[in-house]
Amino acid sequence: MIRRLEVFLNRKIRVNFKNYYQRQDVQKLENKNFVLISRNCWGGQVYQWLNLPYNTPFVGLFLFGPCYMKLLSNFDEYMNMNLQFREVSKYPDAYNNHPIGLLGDIEIHFQHYKTKQEAKSKWNRRKARMLKYDKSNYFFSICDRRGVTNSDIEEFHKLKYKNKISFSFNKIPSLTNLQHIKFIQDLSKKKGAPPNGRKRFKLTFLYFDLVHYLNTGNVLRTRFKQ
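Above: the chain sequence. Below: its structure as tokens.
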């Protein structure tokens, strides 16, 4: 309970002094050409925080766990496919009130886009921008939401990508490396599904130095550790 209260209070400090912390991070950032591959809005929040253009098409969207893991297992092949669309998701608990993209058998849910045309235009433009950068500067992330299991996160860390980081609210005993962040449930967390990408981004700074990670590829833990 004490640690949960600490998380809550530190969140409040970050909110109240947001502009100060943001200016500090923008000034410290040296690697401005990084590419974030994120299955939800966490990645887009990073670019917005650092006042950078989106160097990735993975913005304003989400993927269910099985599709995301399949995408990562054969990333180059899927990213070379043309984006198509379907009307109804293959996932029973999905909402079908936004454009649902397809890369082969991979579903991409463009939840923050109004039309297929908008989703496809921005996807293609940002994908072209992403492909200009070396893969050594790609940063992959995953979190325990929308069908992502502990086993998926374990498999994620076995993938041969240079820069990887994972987030969960459950302890995964097999993962003791610095690249796995276990969040503490703070007092503002509601019961039910784990927080979405936006809310999770706000917790990020309590656990590791984001800018140091983007500059060096190394995870430097901050106040709260596992």
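The first strand starts at residue 35 and ends at 37.
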